[in-house]
Every structure is written in structure tokens, then in C-alpha cells.
């Protein structure tokens, strides 16, 4: 049976490409149909239509508001046909909203698996993402063979909302690393050290990381086409600060990178890749 897929942005396109490459049949839906007219997959006109051809449906959307719309829109996913179907939500949701998604899908006889993605376009194309799932163990086990086609590392935290919280925590590392690496790169250039050489040295020195490996060439070329956008990291760091506030816990190191990415958004650069924060330091 085909796999359903909702949300064909940068990451969604990469994941569907990977699934197609390993032989999976896909039926896709995107709110903006014009953006997917070039894709070689069968296209559904509504989310509900996917149920007639798919037992498993992925969602890969920007935020919880987008997920809510797909659920509740006319001919959305919340309908009688949801019974026995599994929804794998790759979206980085709000940590409270995702609890509501678990409750409503499961109460209607469907299966909801919270499954945020760690990684962006390049690892997605290679089937080398990391995914962390939360939801019923039996649901996770049933779809794990599909997840293994897109992910190299797979974890299960059974308690709902745990995967979402872990994704936000991970993205504090991601945003902090990227901001620091960008500033280091600009500082080296100000010292008249060639950018490519500085990045090579950082890559075997203190800057050694998956972030730098993924972004070195983009920084050299100043290619800021989005794999993971400033808007996305800004949203996630805001959510993490909200979580810390709710827990009445201090969160010291998130404030500066969050404000830096907020500045990028304010400058009209929200749709650029988050490595474009380099422009703030380049001078």
C-alpha cells in the first residue's frame, strides 16, 4: 500500500525523494498545490482522500497551527476514516499542542506518533536522519521499518511530548553551534585568514561538529538557500524558552542565539538557511 505524505517543503521534498528512491509508492498532499505540480507522485486533492489509499500518513509541517489546520479543515484528517490509520507527525510542534494531537487522534480510533526529525535536506536524501518518536510502543514498532528507510538513528521515548521536548533541547545545541561557528568564521576573515582555510581548521579543531560539516561549503559559497531556515530555528528556540518558563527553570544559553535569529527574521532573511546568520558578523 502507498504511503501518504502531507507537507512538501524543503524537508518534506527530501524525505519523499528518499522514500521514492527506496521503492515506496507515495500519494502526497500540499496546501499549495502549485508548489508540487512538478513532483512525480500521485497527488491527493484533500488530506481525507489519502485514507482511501494509505494506512500510514506522514505530516511534515512548519508548526502546530499548520497541523491543526490539516486535522480540522474541510475534508481534513479528523474524520471517520481515521480509524485504524497511523499518522506519523514529523513536525516540530508546541510541547502542549502535541499532547492534544495524541489525545484527539487516539480517541477517534487512529494512531498518532509524534516523530520530530533531527537533520535537514542532505541527510534526509541519504536516509541518514535521526528521529525521536513518542507514542504507544506497539505503534512505534509497527512503523519502525518505514522509519528505518529515512533515518539512521531511531529512538523511542514513550511518554507523549517527550520527543518534541528533546527536539527543542537538541536545537539549542544546533542554534548555539551555528551562531558561534558563524562568528568564528567572520572573526578569522577579519584577521585576514582565508575563509576556506579557517573553516578547514575549525573542522578539525574546536569547531568540529556535524553542524560545521553540513554548512562548510554553504558558508564558503555564501549559499543561503534554505535547508533549515532562520524562521524554523527562531521558532524552536522561542518554544524552548516557553518550556523553561513553564517549568520555572532558568535557560541561560538560549537567549543570545534566539535573539540573533530573531534579528535575521527582522531583516527579512527568515526564509534563508540558518547558516546565513554569518551575515550578522561579517560586517
UniProtKB/TrEMBL annotation:
Regions that span the bilayer: none
A GO term, aspect molecular function: oxidoreductase activity
Keyword RNA-binding: no
Gene3D superfamilies the UniProt entry points to: N-(1-d-carboxylethyl)-l-norvaline Dehydrogenase, domain 2, NAD(P)-binding Rossmann-like Domain
Keywords: NAD, Oxidoreductase
Keyword Zinc: no
One Pfam match: NAD_binding_2
Name under which the protein is recorded: 3-hydroxyisobutyrate dehydrogenase family beta-hydroxyacid dehydrogenase
Organism (species): Malaciobacter pacificus
Amino acid at each position: 500500500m502507498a504511503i501518504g505524505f502531507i507537507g512538501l517543503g524543503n524537508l518534506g521534498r527530501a524525505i519523499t525523494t528518499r522514500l521514492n528512491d527506496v521503492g515506496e509508492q507515495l500519494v502526497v498532499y500540499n496546501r499549495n498545490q502549485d508548489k508540487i505540480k512538478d513532483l512525480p507522485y500521485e497527488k491527493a486533492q484533500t488530506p481525507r482522500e489519502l485514507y482511501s489509499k494509505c494506512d500510514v500518513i506522514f505530516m511534515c509541517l512548519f508548526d502546530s497551527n499548520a497541523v491543526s489546520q490539516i486535522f480540522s479543515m474541510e475534508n481534513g484528517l479528523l474524520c471517520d476514516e481515521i480509524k485504524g490509520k497511523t499518522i506519523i507527525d514529523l513536525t516540530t510542534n508546541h510541547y502542549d499542542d502535541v499532547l492534544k494531537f495524541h489525545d484527539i487522534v487516539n480517541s477517534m480510533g487512529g494512531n498518532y506518533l509524534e516523530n520530530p526529525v533531527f537533520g535537514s535536506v542532505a541527510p534526509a536524501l541519504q536516509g541518514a536522519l535521526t528521529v525521536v518518536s513518542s507514542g504507544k510502543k506497539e505503534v512505534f514498532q509497527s512503523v519502525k521499518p518505514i522509519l528505518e528507510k529515512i533515518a539512521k538513528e531511531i529512538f523511542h521515548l514513550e511518554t507523549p511530548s517527550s520527543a518534541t521536548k528533546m527536539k527543542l533541547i537538541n536545537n539549542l545545541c544546533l542554534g548555539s553551534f551555528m551562531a558561534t561557528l558563524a562568528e568564528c568564521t567572520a572573526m578569522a576573515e577579519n584577521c585576514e585568514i582565508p575563509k576556506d582555510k579557517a573553516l578547514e581548521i575549525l573542522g578539525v579543531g574546536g569547531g568540529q561538529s556535524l553542524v560545521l560539516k553540513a554548512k562548510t561549503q554553504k558558508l564558503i559559497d555564501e549559499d543561503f538557500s534554505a535547508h533549515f531556515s532562520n524562521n524554523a530555528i527562531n521558532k524552536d528556540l522561542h518554544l524552548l524558552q516557553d518550556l523553561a518558563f513553564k517549568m520555572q527553570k532558568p535557560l541561560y544559553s538560549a537567549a543570545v542565539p534566539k535573539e540573533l535569529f530573531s534579528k535575521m527574521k527582522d531583516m527579512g532573511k527568515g526564509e534563508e538557511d540558518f547558516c546565513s546568520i554569518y551575515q550578522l558578523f561579517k560586517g
